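Chapter review. Work through the record for Benzil reductase ((S)-benzoin forming) before attempting the end-of-chapter questions.
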Amino acid sequence: MKTAVITGASRGLGFGIAKNMLEEGIGVITISRNENIEIKELANKNGLSYNHFQCDLSSEKDVVETFGKAASIAFSSGIEKVYLFNNAGTVEPIETVGSLPVEEVGFSVQTNLIAPILISNIFLHHSKESKIPADIVNVSSGAGEKPYQGWSVYCSTKAGLNMFTKTAALEQEQAGTNNKIIAYSPGIMDTNMQGTIRSSSQEAFHDIDRFKKFKENGDLRHPDVVAGAIVNLLLHGEVKSGEIYHVNDLI
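Structure tokens for Benzil reductase ((S)-benzoin forming):
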């Protein structure tokens, strides 16, 4: 048996990943503020394992406690492989440096960068102890490789996540494990995050009109399609650890 652990699974890309994994016969553990009952129903319909945990990813204490429990279930007897998707994230604050709200900066760094680092640390520890291999996918962004006005915090956290991915992958390779850690840049999708971007101000985010046109022109991909691309790579392709995969290269 295999198990997938997915953060931010109640909607958007995380929801799509959960559905794709279940359709591939893999049980899921979802971590999100709100439980999506559709995932539970699909798991029950397919006779697959399902667990859900609520967690405040901006709280280090909550992350350590919750993912310690999730990892104990994921790396249990009879499991042959674990997949971890660090998917949850926030694009806010959308604001220029000098006008950044302090609390939102802290929340973003904790959610987008510190939480995935802590979660990966917990899962790689459990992998070593249980001798069950793990594949970790850190959901990144093109903003981690290119600066956007108004997104200084978001760009910085995603750039940091990319480097963490590469470094952790290097360490696992040098340790001789079978664990693989990659980053996935999903591109522009029709999700709530895009709605947040479109509702920002022109002053705070100069590219707002371009992002509004993405929606108007139908350029936003459905998250299920984007989720299917990374799941297909993991389960049926050849994964190169440390790589930053872009959705355009997989679809």
